[in-house]
Structures are given as C-alpha cells and as structure tokens.
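Aim 2 progress update. The chain analyzed this quarter is reproduced below.
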Amino acid sequence: MEGYKQKPAFLQGGKPVLLQGAMELEIAQLRGALTGCRSFQYGTFLFWEGKLGDQPVVLSRTGIGAAAAAAATAVGCAVFQPSLVLNQGTAGGYPEDLHPFDLVVGERWFNANALFQSRYGKDYYLDLEALEGESKESGFTGERPFYHRCSEAAVRWLDQMTGKYTQGQVLLGTIASADRWNDCPDTIRQLETATGALCEEMETAAAGETAARFGVPFGAVRVISNNNRTGEPFNPETARAVQEWIVGIVKKEEREW
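Predicted structure tokens:
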C-alpha cells in the first residue's frame, strides 16, 4: 500500500484514538506508557484517558468476548467521541507458517458467531445486517462468510508502520472473530481453507460492528500468541510485543511524517 506522506486524519484534530484490549495482559504496557492518565469506570468497564506523545488516547479494557467488546465499544464511542477505534490483542494462528510474535493487520474481519443451520442440517454464514432488513433467506445467508472491511485509512497507516515491528513477520489479511476457541488442528485447517482467515479471536467483530453504528473508523491488529494447529502454546510475551509497537507508532512525531 502507498504510505502516508503526512499524519493520517484520525491522528489530527485533537480527538482521541480509542485503543482496546480484552484483558489486563493486553493493555498493561499501553496504560504504563500513557501520560496525564485519568481513569473512568462505567459499570465494570474501565477506561484510561491520557496521551501517547502528543496524541490524545483513551484506553479501554473491554473484557473477553463479543458481548463485552460490543458494550465497551458503545460506551467508549458515546462518551469519548474517538476519531478511530483500534482493537488489538492476542490471537490464535491458523496457517502452519504463522508463529507466536507474528503480526496480523486486519484488512477485513467476519463474525464467525453468525451462523444459520438449514432445515436439512447444513450450516451457512449469516449476514446480521441483512437479517435486520427481513429479506429473503437467500439474501442473508451464504456459504462464505460475510466480510467487513477495516477502515482503509487505518489499514494504510498500520501497513506503513509494519517496518517498525521487528519481532516477527507481518501479514495483512482476514481475522475470524467469535466466542469460540478451536483447539482441533483439523478444524483450524478447514476454517483456514473455507474462510481465508489468518487467525481467530473473540472481540474484533463485535467492536467493529459497534464502531460502524457510531460512524467511527475501525482498525484491528492481532499478534499471534499461539498456534494450536502446530502445537505452539500461548506465549504471554506476545501481548507485550504488539503493545510496544502500538505505543511507538502512535507516538510518532510530526517531523517523522
């Protein structure tokens, strides 16, 4: 992708970037890097407002899973009016050549929770937005997932900054998102083949769908923390790696553009 010649619009204008992580492990380094930090709590949802360099930031610990991520995103968008929602954290790799510390920049994502089983027992993917329109079955079901694209500007920015990530390879591609943890190598292989996904996790789809309802650009980036297809176990240090990279790219100074 062609890189930016100047700071992207969502890093200008004084509005905060809403950075998200599901659990403490996925936000600790980000929170530690904030300056002028103030905390907020809405129900059990925790937010921290501060700056990374000169950039206003709101950090959100969303909780794990679709319901928590959607609710936290709605609160974050309504209260803090961000210029961008960036969902980040750990994910399980699908291809056999993806390993812990590799990075996936989401060009698109799909809601792997949204499934329709026909009268004859066959599973199809479900387009929830089309379903709201009460269209015919053929209009809201399909044999392939219904993909949603991340903000083109966010993808371009993240892609430009991948040269600053040195702890693994970086790929642009598809993120599968569902409240489901697949440990069976055969299932993972089948899902990769059927959907083209590079990894799976539990928050991107819910956060992306909610950000879209608020008209806020959305981006997603995931570090591979484990690959159950190859037997590589969860490595918690991967969460630190992606957070340190995000701190660096958000703090990038004006003279560097």
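The first strand starts at residue 17 and ends at 21. The domain at 9-256 is CATH 3.40.50.1580 (Rossmann fold). These observations will guide the mutagenesis experiments scheduled for the next reporting period.
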